Amino acid sequence: MSGNGRGRAIDGVILDVDGTLVDSNRLHAQAWFDAFREAGLDGGTATDVQRLIGMGSDRLIEQTVGLDPASEDARALARRRSEIFQSLYLPTVRPVPGARELVEALRDRDFRLTVATSARPDELDQLLAAAELSWLAEAATSGDEVDESKPEPDVVEAALDELSLEPARVAMIGDTPYDVESGTRAGVTVIALRSGGWDDTGLRGAAAIYRDPTELLEELDSSPLGR
Questions:
Q1: Which domain holds residue 39?
Q2: Same-domain pairing of 61 and 115
Q3: By the 8 A CB rule, do 179 and 16 touch?
Q4: Residue 178: CATH number of its domain
Q5: Overall domain count for the chain
Q6: Which of 210, 199, 212 is nearest to 96 (CA)?
Q7: What residues contact residue 15 under an 8 Å CB cut-off, 6+ apart?
Q8: Is position 1 within any domain?
Q9: Could you state, in chain order, the average pLDDT of each consecutive group of 10 residues for the chain (227 residues)?
Q10: Can you tell me the distance from the alpha carbon of 85 to that of 222, in angstroms, rounded to the nearest whole number?
Q11: Of 30, 69, 181, 199, which has fewest CB within 10 angstroms of its CB?
Q12: Are residues 73 and 59 in the same domain?
């Protein structure tokens, strides 16, 4: 691997967290399912909900149970989901294979790194700790900090501001169609991973698709990050 990156097209990388760095999409879906059931709401199965993990919680609530995201009922539901996730499921979160090694390799190649995630700020530190990447929390933007959550491009645009780079010089690594859409609308190169449970059809529109961080690391020199 080269070390200085001179002459490459990409200088900055925006990282998603859930499903990209940590294997948490299924656990988030289960926490939502539990919260819906506790509230007597029909949000479909946990598998149904998992297809929406990656978008903002406001959009997920509206699409699953039809509540106005601005209503107190929706806000209470989101708080309860977070309580369930943090108490029952967050302690079991594990890294996606190769996540720490990939991020450290990008750091060693002098890429500017930041995080753009739909995860709540009060959960983000623990998710990054599970990936052994706590130092990334210093440069992270969550969906709660912007006007519109994924798949709107707001959180990616905020991450671009953090990097102080033009979109053409930045790639985003994510694992859902909502990452692909938000990154594309922000004008960055999107690299998708199947580690969040989506196949190539669901991730269409990405510049490149890999099985997981391990495969991207193995093919880094031939990926959009190595050109």
A1: 25-92
A2: no
A3: yes
A4: 3.40.50.1000
A5: 2
A6: 212
A7: 21, 103, 113, 114, 115, 116, 136, 172, 173
A8: no
A9: 58 97 98 98 97 94 96 97 97 98 98 91 92 91 76 94 96 97 97 98 98 98 93
A10: 38
A11: 199
A12: yes
